[in-house]
Write a structure and sequence with these properties.
The protein has 157 residues and is an alpha+beta fold. It has two domains: 4-41, no CATH class; 50-156. Helix content is 43%, strand content 25%. It has three helices and eight strands. Strands 7-6-5-4-8 form a five-stranded antiparallel sheet. A three-stranded antiparallel sheet has the order 1-2-3, covered by helices on one side. Strand 1 (83-84) and strand 2 (89-92) form a beta hairpin. Helix 1 packs antiparallel against helix 2 (13-23). The longest helix has 49 residues, at 25-73.
């Protein structure tokens, strides 16, 4: 018959912690502390990825507005074509509401007006993204980093 400790290993990690508490009180405090530290780290990493996903999603949504505007008007928007309330609502032909804590950073065009870069940023006080994310139209979409210098700014907030 297997010992109590080997049976608990087959049940799972939490059962191992309980077995150690029963068998070695001093050692169990260390194991329980390590388990808690690992779960807190995992939770923090998950929160970071949620913030990044929110920023990237808004970047993609704005890119869709840019492409729709191009289809409707045969050009990308000029500064006067972009309506932004300074909070979460952006209109470029159609409207989008940015995610909570997100704001429009910049929309930039190349000099010839054929390509664009846009950036959604997190406002002060909100959980920050792990990287600055930008949508660069001629580079295939979302990229880590800010808009390259070859783009001229048409909207900055």
């Amino acid at each position: 018959m297997p010992s109590e400790q080997s049976r608990s290993l087959k049940i799972g990690f939490r059962a191992v912690d309980i077995t150690l508490v029963k068998n070695r009180l001093t050692g169990s405090v260390i194991v329980l502390t390590l388990t808690l530290a690992a779960s807190i780290t995992t939770h923090a990493a998950a929160e970071d990825s949620v913030v990044d996903l929110s920023v990237k999603s808004d970047d993609r949504g704005l890119a869709t507005l840019m492409e729709t505007y191009l289809t409707d008007h045969s050009r990308y928007p000029r500064p006067q074509d972009v309506d932004y309330d300074g909070r979460r609502n952006v209109t470029i032909g159609s409207s989008i509401r940015l995610g909570k804590g997100n704001r429009l950073g910049t929309i930039r065009l190349t000099r010839d007006g054929y390509d664009y870069c846009l950036r959604v940023v997190r406002v002060n006080g909100a959980e920050q993204a792990t990287n600055p994310w930008s949508f660069v139209s001629d580079r295939g979409g979302i990229r880590s980093g800010v808009c390259p210098d070859r783009f001229r700014t048409i909207v900055v907030r």
